[in-house]
Design a protein that fits this description.
Elements (H helix, E strand, L loop, with lengths): L1 H28 L4 H21 L4 H19 L1 H7 L3
Helix pairs in contact: 1-2, 1-3, 2-3
Length: about 90
């Protein structure tokens, strides 16, 4: 079980970093929304990471890992739509 966790954690950290980087990039693209984007860049990955640490050895932990991966995929697929919907 430890080997499975040690091999999956670098991937999950990369996913959480990708989510954070996604919102940080929008903070630079849209300075008027900067603080909210920074907040999302810190809050969402920290929440997922904390919940994963709490529920690591259960099915809830597995669901949280899949949720993080799904969120990153959804964010990246909808990046252009999100850019067009932000108003100043």
């Amino acid at each position: 079980m430890n080997i499975a966790r040690l091999t999956s954690l670098p991937f999950l950290h990369a996913v959480w970093s990708g989510i954070s980087s996604y919102f940080i990039s929008f903070a630079f693209l849209y300075p008027t929304k900067r603080y909210s984007m920074w907040l999302l860049a810190l809050f969402i990955p920290a929440l997922l990471h904390g919940l994963y640490d709490v529920f690591t050895w259960s099915l809830i932990g597995l669901f949280i890992a899949y949720l993080g991966i799904a969120l990153l995929i959804i964010y990246l697929k909808n990046a252009k739509d999100f850019q067009s919907k932000i108003t100043f």
